[in-house]
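Long-time lurker, first post. I've been practising inverse folding by hand and with some scripts of my own, and I keep getting stuck on stretches where the structure tokens seem ambiguous. Below is the full token string for one chain I'm working on. Before anyone asks, I'm not after the true native sequence, just a reasonable design that respects the backbone. If someone could post their per-position residues I'd love to compare against what I wrote down in my notebook.
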């Protein structure tokens, strides 16, 4: 609620599921002499945002009656929490909801916002039902992958983003911690294999900036061992190119690593044209 004023200042349209929020958006829009457009989010089963389909008609009525608001459509989201994949019956149910709301309220709505990068395969193989007017695509455009099995999207590149980080320590050390083991900083009791003495490097990025499980080391022979808040720990024993303090290593981020890198104030974003 506290950011409704800002929301109507910077956007004409937003995805919503809460009636009180929509009323607040409407008040803020009216005060600015604007009408704010709203897409009613319906939860088709992923169990993140959205009203349940059986409540959509009543909620739509309450939203459409808010001063300063134009209800322009329905939308849904997939995969983000429950990993739910879109299917034809549920998408058709969403399309039907638009028609039901239009009929009930006597309004016309242009938008059926059918999902995100989890829908890409249906879009490409032609199985997406008619009546879906838009998808909200992030991952498939930016990373070139669909979001349920991370298959490549034809025609898209998978190498648009590279994370570069400077090496701040390189030392030969045992590969298994020495002594009694408890939880690490992140509540996990690590089970590390003894691979003998190995050359290890630390890069100056960490979990605050990336997800080490969604990161691939691009320098041949370099592998990721793990990360703490601001240290990325690497095995460089078999690195093909010499790694020393000051070396800059490259990594390819998948979705969650890219998300954190973009929201971390400690990662500089540089656009390079090729
Ligand atoms: C509501 C909503 N729509 C669309 C997207 C984009 O999803 P994707 O990156 O899978 O295309 C997201 C991702 O966070 C989202 O939360």
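-- Answer (accepted) --
I ran through it position by position. Result:
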């Amino acid at each position: 609620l506290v950011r409704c004023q800002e929301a109507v200042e910077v956007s004409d349209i937003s995805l919503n599921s809460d009636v009180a929020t929509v009323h607040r958006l409407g008040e803020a829009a009216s005060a600015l002499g604007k009408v704010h457009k709203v897409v009613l989010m319906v939860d088709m089963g992923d169990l993140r945002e959205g009203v349940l389909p059986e409540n959509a008609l009543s909620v739509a009525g309450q939203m459409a009656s808010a001063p300063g608001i134009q209800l322009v459509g329905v939308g849904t989201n997939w995969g983000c929490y429950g990993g739910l994949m879109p299917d034809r019956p549920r998408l058709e149910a969403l399309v039907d909801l638009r028609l039901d709301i239009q009929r009930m309220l006597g309004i016309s709505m242009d938008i059926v916002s059918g999902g995100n990068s989890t829908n890409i395969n249906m879009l490409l193989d032609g199985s997406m039902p008619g009546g879906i007017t838009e998808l909200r695509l992030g991952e498939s455009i930016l990373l070139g992958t669909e979001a349920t099995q991370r298959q490549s999207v034809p025609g898209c590149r998978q190498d648009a983003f590279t994370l570069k980080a400077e090496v701040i320590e390189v030392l030969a050390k045992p590969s298994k911690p020495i002594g009694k083991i408890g939880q690490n900083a992140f509540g996990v009791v690590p089970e590390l294999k003894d691979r003998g003495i190995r050359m290890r490097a630390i890069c100056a990025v960490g979990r605050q900036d990336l997800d080490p499980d969604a990161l691939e080391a691009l320098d041949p022979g370099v592998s990721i061992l793990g990360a703490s808040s601001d240290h990325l720990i690497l095995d460089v024993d078999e690195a093909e190119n010499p790694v020393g303090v000051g070396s800059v290593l490259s990594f390819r981020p998948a979705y969650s690593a890219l998300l954190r890198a973009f929201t971390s104030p400690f990662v500089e974003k540089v656009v390079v044209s090729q």
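A couple of notes from the structure itself: The longest helix spans residues 88-105. The CA atoms of residues 144 and 158 lie 5 Å apart. Happy to go over any region you disagree with.
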